[in-house]
């Protein structure tokens, strides 16, 4: 057995309404998908978030005598202990002796010969609802591989902790990459199962084969309902507050500025050693499993402590303020402009910031695209729309 522990200390927003029906994620609705796995050669796309109440999905299925042929591991690995961007090789899980196949690095899509060994693939990973969070790119490639091989694809749905928001530029095709594969906004307001339906329905898969797609819904889910994530979805998103700030602060990855990787509070602080906008200080250090080479390593940085602010949706003021601080000193801010454009899905955001446009002006520029996206996504929604 895996014996992956589930921490109850994971910070999250709380639900105050006492009459709210119990939310049940797709993986916990075992009777909905177990019959589809019995007697089949099964592969799982899972990580540390793939839990069924207090057990890992792998353990639950092994108890049910399901024939798990292999486990596909996304960015951060099967147990979620790999640093962002860290490549890792395929191996054997030492606890279950099930083959682990890496889906990060150069092997993002399994070979046809690998897929022919399977009948069903189950995808069950907690996403955070932001286009550049790479679990949805992994899902895309696995859907494509499944279609090519005639393998059924089952998505066990989970809530989107940023599901109340649709915002940001819609990705332009010339900026497509692993951190943005689909023409959707930065905050798309979809669960992974809804997105899977849209990927299939809009013919975004690069294959002529039809995908046999099954989704298992979350019971009693509402997009604007706060959801307690029992496990952090990746090493540098340790709590709900970091997840809320993530869509706004991730742009700093394309700049010289630190957003707290290598500290106990990644994606909750902003700082630099020479140019700063505050007196709060922190020092990034090597953090095994989370930050092997953090930006501005071992330097004392000064800036902003955001741990006590309320953040909702996409806030461009952070990056605009820091851009201006660098511009006043005539220091390059977007030192990785191509990466910034990949994160944004366009070069228009970076150019608008450089041109001095306000957050309001920039957001207004993508409203027509957002309205078109909202209309396009409606046929694929599994839960009531709030946008």
Task: Using brief descriptors, characterize the structure shown.
26% helix; 11 helices; alpha/beta; disordered N terminus; 387 residues; three-stranded antiparallel beta sheet
Secondary structure blueprint with pairings:
Blueprint: H1 30-37, E1 41-46, E2 51-52, E3 55-56, H2 57-63, E4 67-73, E5 91-92, E6 99-102, H3 112-115, E7 120-124, H4 135-149, E8 152-156, H5 192-201, E9 213-216, H6 240-249, E10 269-272, E11 280-282, E12 301-305, H7 317-328, H8 337-344, H9 348-354, H10 359-365, H11 367-377
Parallel strand pairs: 1-4, 1-7, 4-6, 7-8, 8-9
Antiparallel strand pairs: 2-3, 5-6, 10-12, 11-12
Helix pairs in contact: 4-5
Verbal overview:
The structure is a single chain. By secondary structure, this protein is an alpha/beta fold. The chain has eleven helices and twelve strands. The protein has helices at 30-37, 57-63, 112-115, 135-149, 192-201, 240-249, 317-328, 337-344, 348-354, 359-365, 367-377, and strands spanning 41-46, 51-52, 55-56, 67-73, 91-92, 99-102, 120-124, 152-156, 213-216, 269-272, 280-282, 301-305. The strands form three sheets. The protein has a seven-stranded mixed sheet, sandwiched between helices. A three-stranded antiparallel sheet has the order 10-12-11, with no helix packed on it. A two-stranded antiparallel ribbon has the order 2-3. Strand 8 (152-156), helix 5 (192-201) and strand 9 form a beta-alpha-beta unit. Helix 4 packs across helix 5 (192-201). It is globular and about 65 Å long. Mean pLDDT is 91; it is low at 1-18 and 80-88.
């Amino acid at each position: 057995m895996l014996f992956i522990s589930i921490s109850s200390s994971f910070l999250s927003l709380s639900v105050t309404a006492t009459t709210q029906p119990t939310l049940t994620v797709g993986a916990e609705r075992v009777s909905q998908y177990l019959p589809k796995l019995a007697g089949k050669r099964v592969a799982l796309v899972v990580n540390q978030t793939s839990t069924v109440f207090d057990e890992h999905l792998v353990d639950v299925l092994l108890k049910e005598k399901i024939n798990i042929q292999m486990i596909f591991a996304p960015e951060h690995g099967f147990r979620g202990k790999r640093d962002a961007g860290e490549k890792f090789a395929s191996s054997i899980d030492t606890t279950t002796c099930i083959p682990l196949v890496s889906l990060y690095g150069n092997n993002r899509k399994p070979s046809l010969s690998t897929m022919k060994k399977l009948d069903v693939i189950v995808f069950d990973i907690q996403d955070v609802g932001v286009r550049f969070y790479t679990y949805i790119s992994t899902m895309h490639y696995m859907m494509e591989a499944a279609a090519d091989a005639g393998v059924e694809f089952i998505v066990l749905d989970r809530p989107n902790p940023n599901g109340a928001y649709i915002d940001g530029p819609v990705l332009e095709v010339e900026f497509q990459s692993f951190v943005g594969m689909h023409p959707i906004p930065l905050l798309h307001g979809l669960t992974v199962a809804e997105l899977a339906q849209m990927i299939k329905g809009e013919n975004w898969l690069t294959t002529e084969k039809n995908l046999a797609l099954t989704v298992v819904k979350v019971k009693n889910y509402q997009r604007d309902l706060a959801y307690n994530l029992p496990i952090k979805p990746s090493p540098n998103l340790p709590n709900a507050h970091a997840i809320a700030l993530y869509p706004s602060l991730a742009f700093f990855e394309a700049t010289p500025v630190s957003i707290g990787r290598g500290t106990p509070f990644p994606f909750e602080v902003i700082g630099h050693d020479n140019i700063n906008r505050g007196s709060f200080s922190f020092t990034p250090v090597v953090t095994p499993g989370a930050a092997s080479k953090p930006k501005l390593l071992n330097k004392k940085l000064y800036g902003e402590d955001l741990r006590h602010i309320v953040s909702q949706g996409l806030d461009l003021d952070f990056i605009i303020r820091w851009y201006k601080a660098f511009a006043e000193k005539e220091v390059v801010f977007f030192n990785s402009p191509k990466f910034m454009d990949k994160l944004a899905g366009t070069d228009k955001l970076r150019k608008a910031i450089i041109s001095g446009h306000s957050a309001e002006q920039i957001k207004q520029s993508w409203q027509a695209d957002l309205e078109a996206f909202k209309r396009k996504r409606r046929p694929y929604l599994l839960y009531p729309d709030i946008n």
